[in-house]
Design a protein that fits this description.
alpha+beta, six-stranded mixed sheet, 60s Ribosomal Protein L30, Chain: A, single chain, 129 residues
């Protein structure tokens, strides 16, 4: 019999789901955060036209959800990053490293032909206590 509780995590400090999914699901000591795009949670508008600002917004959305789940970015075990152009990989890494410092999670970064709402970046994470 499974005694681990599955809990939906939600915060107004990150964008509402734009489909049939949760911002995050906590399962025991693990937190699975859905893909976040550069959507401003206050206005509901996309951040566009400046790749660096888009990356920051997506990472701030991730951070808000992780914190709502009672964790911090230090708890991130793995990230999955989708870019619409791998030519932005170096710019992404520069900003990303500022968020994770020396506690680096496992990661894959792939180029995707098209992302939701035609954004340039989407990031999801898995955290653990």
């Amino acid at each position: 019999m499974n005694t681990i509780e599955r809990k939906i995590i939600s915060t107004p400090n990150a964008p509402k789901a734009i489909g049939p999914y949760a911002q995050a699901v906590q399962y025991g000591d693990l937190l699975f955060v859905s893909g976040m795009i550069p959507l401003d949670p206050k206005t509901g508008e996309l951040i566009t036209g400046n790749f660096e600002a888009e990356v920051v917004r997506a990472l701030e959305n991730i951070k808000a959800i992780v914190e709502a789940g009672g964790m911090s970015l230090k708890n991130v075990l793995k990230t999955t990053v989708f870019l619409n152009d791998l030519g932005n990989f170096a710019k992404f890494n520069e900003i990303y490293s500022g968020y994770f410092g020396e506690i680096l999670p496992a990661r894959e970064t792939v180029q995707a032909a098209q992302l939701p709402r035609d954004v340039s970046i989407e990031i999801s994470v898995i955290c653990g206590k």
